[in-house]
Design a protein that fits this description.
Largest sheet of chain C: 2 strands, antiparallel
Strand order of the largest sheet of chain C: 1-2
Structural class of chain A: alpha/beta
Distance between the termini of chain C: 61 Å
Distance between the termini of chain A: 40 Å
Number of helices of chain C: 13
Number of helices of chain A: 10
Oligomer: heterotrimer
Structural class of chain C: mainly alpha
Radius of gyration of chain A: 18 Å
Strand content of chain C: under 5%
Strand order of the largest sheet of chain A: 6-7-8-3-9-10
Helix content of chain A: 25-40%
Chains: A alpha/beta, B mainly alpha, C mainly alpha
Largest sheet of chain A: 6 strands, mixed
Radius of gyration of chain C: 19 Å
Shape of chain C: globular
CATH superfamily of one domain in chain A: P-loop containing nucleotide triphosphate hydrolases
């Protein structure tokens, strides 16, 4: 069978008169790490939102393992194996770190009337949550209130939550933003570990250094359109890409 | 025919008076995103203060000015000591405090002035005239003229002055406005001053027009005006005015003409729900994306 | 044994507490706004009243039917909450309260402004319950309601409501259907309110629509906020405090309402988290929320 997990074909969306994404196409292979780059406002998060079900495309299609997922709402996309993190972290602030992960672990139960009345505080759930927290290095914070965590830990929590869905595809939206150098290293290693378990990863990132080191392939967007596709080495030398970043006075590396 | 004209004139007057009360509410919601239900009790307090001053001085000018100052101070105190500290909590917290405050102020009016319905006989220096065989009393003329003047002044303020620009900026996005150098604290305080002063005028007008001032007079507009700001488009002052005029006309016609026995409050809300289904952001609301 | 005045006050407190538990699920657990909860108490009250007077059913036969009716209406009223945002929703729920009360007040079928009387006593084991017996029945029912609430907060369904309350966008990306969670909370919460209404009808033996008007909704909301929103004991605690206060001030007759309002105002102003310091009061999104226009999407 094909080793393409996600196929985005001629994806477009417009809001009112503004075409935020215009005819974007790319494939994500199984176990691949693909970077989605571009200056501010290029439409990257909008693409994420179309893949994860937050927006419905105006035209074009998103295929997940051959199945068209256009218009499916986010909770159904989660059930289909798409997990995501958010550019601005969205923890369940009033719940504990452990509870945050357990929410995602409950995904198989929410749709069904009978099982939705089962208790969530049972040992299997808590054990599974601790496993995930250990994976991201948050096991000591398990009982802390999520709203009180510093940013670095919140980004780890977002990843743990998304992984609790046992996803086939993980969408990471600027998960390195605001982090210190040591923290960036830790998350990078975490991502490799996740990829090694067979999960495909699509990430958005502004930090060029991290993006180039992490990605196997890169898609560059500008003003909603595709600008370039290729391996990091090619993209770095691509004149159109360089112009898109520098020409806007935009930062080519930053956080 | 003359009945129709009479209903029309009454309806417009009712609408104008609703508009004066709702305006303050809309402006305040616009800058602070708080449902200032207690505004209706500021209106009541304004009516009482106006009555008291007029009875003691015989001058409508002093009564109006004094009442406006009184309500303006009341409004600012409310904003500073009740709403501002509660901004960081979920919206039902300031809402409950507003309702509790309304009851407290109404009860104070009752305790100080007595529960009986007082009259507000006043000689307003306005002419009386005749349209289509219907006599327009001085009071009615006063309602039209005063409302028109207030609306005009407010329009000039909002569109031509820096303060008005600041108010509009804060109501769009407080954080950005602040980043651009607008003193949001001061702008909000001034909005309360203006809104409360207009409520005082409304209180006096209503008191004279219906010749009734009583502690619970705020209950009539209190919740209706909430529906009106929704219909108008949350925070849109012109929308609130339009919605108020429409409601004034609708109430007068439906109850005067068609004799439909629905309580007036319910009518406002039913109209609100119908309009919301058709225009989810209200008559003149901003479409949020 | 107990003074009948005390039993009276206590019964009313328990009945209000039951309604408050229902509201706590909607507002405290699921974070949805509901300022018209009294409407559902009214529907439960009128439903049971009509079924036991006009249709001649007993309290126990009428109750399940009333609960289903309230649940259905609750479901229908919950639907607007899906499409409409925060402040709009607040006013819409107030509107529902006004409209429901107006319907009961102006429809002759429901007794109109004269109200509905002659509601029979509740019978258990063949005997009509008197004041003390009825009070105990209310306490037992409240205990059952509290157990249901407790079970709900421990269930996946309840957890999904917490997630929606905290961060709806993130919750939906974790597999929680916001529609399902909100409607579940609404139906459960309003059915409990209807239960309270049915008890109220059989307690008062006479009901009229203005007992269920907007001020009652405000009282219920004040109860759960004062007690501690989203907590387990909050609704009961709040009902006791706000139920005892007016009685304590009763001798002060004229100043009663003023003192009640003033104390409520001070409580909310200085203890917005309620006595038990309810959940999520200072969650991140609330800190950032004020003054911003609603920014959709993520």
């Amino acid at each position: 069978m094909s080793d393409v997990l996600v196929s985005v074909k001629n994806l477009s969306i417009h809001f009112g008169g503004l075409k935020a994404v215009d005819n974007v196409s790319f494939d994500i292979h199984k176990g691949e790490i693909l970077g989605l780059l571009g200056p501010n406002g290029a439409g990257k998060t909008t693409c994420f939102n179309m893949i994860s079900g937050v927006y419905k495309p105006s035209s074009g299609q998103v295929f997940l393992d051959g199945v068209c997922t256009n218009g499916l709402p986010p909770h159904k996309m989660a059930a289909m194996g798409v997990g995501r993190t958010f550019q601005v972290v969205k923890p369940f602030a009033g719940l504990s770190v452990e509870e945050n992960v357990i929410v995602a672990l409950g995904m198989p139960h929410y749709g069904k009337f009978a099982s939705s009345w089962r208790f969530w505080n049972a040992k299997p759930s808590r054990d599974a949550a601790m496993e995930l927290l250990k994976m991201v290095g948050l096991e000591k914070e398990a009982q802390s209130r999520a709203g009180l965590l510093p940013l670095g830990n919140l980004r780890k929590l977002e990843i743990a939550r998304a992984m609790a869905l046992k996803p086939r595809l993980l969408l990471l939206d600027e998960c390195f933003s605001g982090l210190r150098h040591e923290e960036i290293q830790v998350i990078e290693d975490l991502i490799y570990k996740i990829r090694d378990t067979g999960v495909s990863i699509l990430f958005i990132e502004h930090n060029m250094k991290v993006a180039m080191s992490l990605a196997e392939h890169i898609v560059v967007l500008d003003h909603g359109r595709m600008l370039a596709v290729g391996i990091p080495a090619e993209i770095q030398k691509n004149p159109a890409v360089i112009e898109a970043y520098l020409g806007k006075g935009g930062d080519s590396d930053a956080a | 025919m003359s009945l129709l004209v009479e209903q029309l004139l009454n309806g417009l007057a009712a609408g104008a008076m609703y508009a004066l009360i709702t305006l303050g509410l809309a402006l305040i919601y616009g800058v602070m995103k708080i449902l200032h239900v207690a505004h209706a009790s500021v209106y009541t307090a304004g009516a009482y203060m106006g009555l008291c001053l007029y009875t003691h001085t015989g001058s409508m000018l002093i009564a109006a000015a004094g009442s406006m100052v009184f309500c303006a101070i009341l409004g600012v105190l409310i904003e500073k000591y009740i709403y501002f500290p509660l901004l960081k909590f979920p919206p039902y917290v300031p809402l409950i405090s507003s309702i509790a405050l309304m009851i407290a102020i109404e009860e104070l009016c009752r305790l100080v002035a007595g529960p009986e319905v007082r009259t507000f006989p006043a000689n307003l220096p306005f002419p009386s005239f005749s349209i289509c065989g219907v006599t327009v009393s001085p009071t009615l003329t006063a309602v039209y003229v005063v409302s028109a003047v207030v609306l005009l002044l407010l329009w000039l303020l909002m569109t031509k002055t820096e303060l008005g620009l600041a108010m509009r900026a804060v109501s769009q996005d407080m954080e950005t406005a602040s980043a651009l150098g607008v003193d949001t604290q001061k702008t909000v305080a001034i909005t309360f001053i203006i809104g409360s002063a207009i409520a005082a005028i409304a209180g006096i007008l209503v008191g004279i027009y219906y010749n009734q001032v009583y502690p619970m007079m705020g209950e009539v507009p209190a919740y209706k005006t909430l529906a009106l700001i929704v219909v108008g488009g949350m925070g849109s002052a012109p929308g609130a005015v339009l919605a108020s005029l429409l409601l004034g006309l609708a109430e007068t016609f439906l109850i005067g003409y068609a004799n439909i026995p629905m309580p007036r409050d319910a009518l406002a809300f039913i109209a609100m729900i119908i309009i919301l289904m058709w225009l989810p952001t209200g008559l003149m609301g901003k479409r949020q994306k | 044994m107990f003074d009948s005045y005390v039993i009276n006050v206590a019964t009313q407190i328990i009945i209000q507490a039951i309604a408050a538990y229902g509201l706590n699920i909607i507002v405290g657990n699921a974070g949805q706004i509901s300022l018209g909860h009294a409407a559902f108490v009214a529907i439960g009250a009128y439903s049971n009243a009509m079924l036991t007077t006009v249709a001649g059913l007993t309290f126990w036969q009428a109750l399940p039917i009333s609960l289903v009716i309230v649940g259905i209406v609750g479901l229908l009223c919950g639907l607007p909450s899906l499409r409409v945002h925060a402040d709009f929703l607040a006013i819409t729920t107030i509107g529902i309260n006004f409209i429901v009360v107006a319907v009961f007040q102006y429809t002759p079928f429901f007794g109109g402004s004269m109200g509905l009387g002659g509601i029979p006593s509740v019978h258990m084991f063949g005997h009509p319950l008197r004041a003390q017996g009825f009070f105990l029945l209310c306490v037992v029912i409240m205990a059952i309601v509290m157990a249901i609430c407790w079970l709900f907060t421990r269930s996946w369904s309840g957890l999904s409501c917490f997630a929606i309350r905290e961060e709806e966008t993130a919750a939906s990306s974790m597999g929680v259907s916001p529609v399902r969670a909100k409607l579940t909370a609404f139906v459960l919460g309003t059915m409990i309110a209807g239960l309270s209404g049915a008890l109220y009808a059989h307690y008062m033996k006479f009901i009229s629509a203005d007992a269920f008007s907007f001020p009652f909704s405000v009282t219920l909301l004040s109860i759960i906020v004062a007690g501690g929103l989203g907590t387990f004991w909050g609704p009961l605690l709040g009902a006791v405090i706000l139920g005892v206060m007016p009685e304590v001030f009763r001798p002060l007759v004229d100043y009663r309402m003023f003192l009640y309002a003033a104390i409520l105002l001070l409580m909310i102003r200085f203890m917005p988290g309620g006595i038990l310091g309810g959940s999520t009061m200072l969650s991140i999104k609330n800190l950032a929320k004020r003054g911003k226009t609603a920014k959709g999407g993520c």
